[in-house]
Amino acid sequence: MSRNPQKNVALTSFITAVIMTIMIFVPYLADIDPYNGGFAISFVSILIAVTAAIVGLMFIGQAKKVDQILRGQGVLAHWIYPVDLWREYAEKEYKTEKAQKKFLVIIVAAFAIFFGLLFWLLDPEPGFIVFLVMMGLIGLIILTWQFTAWYNYRKNTSNTTKQVYIRKDAVYLNNTLYEWATAFTSFNKVKLQKNKDLNLLVFIFTSLNRTGPQTYTIRVPIPPGKEENAKNIAEQINESN
Any residues with CB less than 8 A from the CB of 139 and at least 6 apart, and which? Predict the structure, then answer.
């Protein structure tokens, strides 16, 4: 049976929350002057404890759903991928992810350069500082773009069994859960797509976060001989959502 990494995250978060809750009272127990770091230790401990508890609650819900999926509850398909097929998918996914985000990076960089130069021209001394900050922002964005694509590629090429579980409300692909039957999330559609000689099931859903609506596209490779099965799955999911 596949492992459930969501459980590990939830457990780690709850342990962190307990430790930081204890840390809240350490200044009092250790007789640390409140105005000499005591208040700061307690305040930071409260923030970390609350954050860790929230993360733990989020992931314990995901862990329960993953347990259901691994037990086969509501699963429409469970595909285990041959090594060669998954390697091809990982390479194409890496190129696709970089290409899709490249345009956004260029747009953000162009705006940053424009406003950086504008501030520099309008008020040279402080404007130059703004320009340097904008250049730093561009560097950070490029670094994040490259690192995210590299991290996902590294995860996809790790030495584990590559498989997917598909339900009407979620996809569990390579030990990562994607679900759309949650608050502030709406399912758009699932469609069949072809990337050269690689057949894909493409799931598209939109989730509302603090920066506004964000659309997610999850590409699931279809093993050879499962094309008709994939077509039926797409029809079932589109009808039920």
Answer: none
